[in-house]
Amino acid sequence: MSKKIDPRYSPDDLPKVKNPFLYLWRCFIKIFCYVFFGIGTFLVVIFCWPVLRLVWHDKATFKYKGRIFISGILNFFVQTMSFLRISRYQVDDAEKLRNLKSCIVVANHPSLLDVIYTFAFVRNADCIIKAGLKSSPVSGIVRPLYIPNDGDWDEMVKEAKKSLDTGANLIIFPEGTRTPRHGTNQYKKGAARIALETGCNVQPLHIGGGDKYGLGKYDPFYKAHPTNAYMYKFTVLPQISMDKYKGLSPAIAAKRLTDDMRSSIDSVQD
Length: 270
Description:
Glycerol-3-phosphate (1)-acyltransferase; alpha/beta; about 45% helix; 7-stranded mixed beta sheet
């Protein structure tokens, strides 16, 4: 018996496959990219990371240059996907993303590749990692560079502020899971609370470009979109200043900022 999924994620309205050979080719290339990414991650962990730890032995230097290095690796992967024509992208203000400093970047989350694209375009990017990742095969990469979520809110905000004060940008997907194909999820208030407690501006980012079936929640990993290669269109929206929320109670400020983030991102018609 098949598992019943949230109807907002349902693929029932997808168009039919028009060219079976082209569709199978896209499925093959998609799986190849998974394998390519996995092997690349393994090689970085085994061979590159120990050398880089020796070269950049200072902790602060390693964090900064390590994030730049990871961004470059992910950018190479993005360019590889473009070359293989499985995924293309368009950024309306790439220079602004590259030069961001001390901002909290919030975005919708329609697909599996959102993290890769965002970290490829925002060079000095930090994030909050799930506690489970600390024991994963990539823990050797994520633990030294990013902020662990060990359940202590005050400590997590302290680490976030320390990172933002160095000029890093904190990337958060406020939905906490992938955006459904139809509609959105409720935004969690964590990103707003961090922004208010650190005083850093919020940079909303809309990820559009059409349907991402095959990369969404519940989608089979071996399937691709029936008719199109994936297209990612990034819209860099006006920043939200924390000055707007001065004088409000923390609870009201967090709710209003969360609503403003959602309104900004939802204002883009895909």
